[in-house]
């Protein structure tokens, strides 16, 4: 069974982000409001460093059902950030794969800083569809 390794996923992601970074400066979200929007309990909708972060409670089934029910959906400027929860309760993403975070909000903010204005590339697992 062919599975993508972390090294391959990181290399592919880094390459895509580098290419997309050239266009990323002009592809900002339409929202420039620096205030967090009013949202239902358990959700986050805020603008951080000019990027819109939206986190909704887990419904499960996104990414073609590759996540367990209860996983939150994290979006940056409307594009989904693939996140994973570690056994110790910390969080990682494809952008910050080797750095752990206490919660999805701090993980999303770190991804915004790491992207440095680049547009988040779609994540498609090997052998699946996004």
Description:
The strands form 2 sheets. Strands 1-2-3-4 form a 4-stranded antiparallel sheet, with helices on one face. Strands 5-6 form a two-stranded antiparallel sheet. It is α+β, with helices and mostly antiparallel strands and 130 residues long. It is built from 3 helices and 6 strands.
Fraction of residues in β-strands: 15-25%
Main beta sheet strand tally, sense and closure = 4 strands, antiparallel
Q: Give, in order, the helices and strands.
A: HEEHEEEEH
Extended strand count: 6
How large is the count of helical segments? 3
Task: Determine the mean pLDDT.
Answer: 74
Structural class by secondary-structure content: alpha+beta
**Which percent range fits the helix content?**
25-40%
Low-confidence region ranges: 22-38, 61-66
Radius of gyration: 14 Å
Side-by-side strand order of the widest sheet: 1-2-3-4
Terminal Cα separation, in Å?
Answer: 19 Å
What's the shape?
A: globular
* Assembly state (oligomeric): single chain
């Amino acid at each position: 069974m062919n599975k993508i390794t972390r090294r391959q996923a990181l290399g592919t992601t880094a390459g895509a982000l580098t290419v997309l970074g050239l266009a990323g400066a002009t592809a900002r979200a339409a929202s420039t409001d620096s205030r967090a929007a009013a949202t239902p309990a358990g959700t986050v909708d805020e603008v951080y460093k000019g990027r819109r972060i939206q986190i909704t409670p887990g419904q499960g089934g996104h990414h073609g059902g590759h996540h367990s029910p209860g996983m939150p959906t994290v979006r940056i400027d409307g594009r989904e950030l693939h996140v994973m929860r570690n056994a110790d309760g910390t969080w990682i993403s494809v952008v910050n794969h080797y750095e752990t975070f206490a919660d999805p909000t701090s993980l999303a903010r770190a991804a915004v800083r790491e992207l440095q204005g680049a547009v988040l590339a779609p994540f498609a697992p090997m052998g699946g569809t996004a």
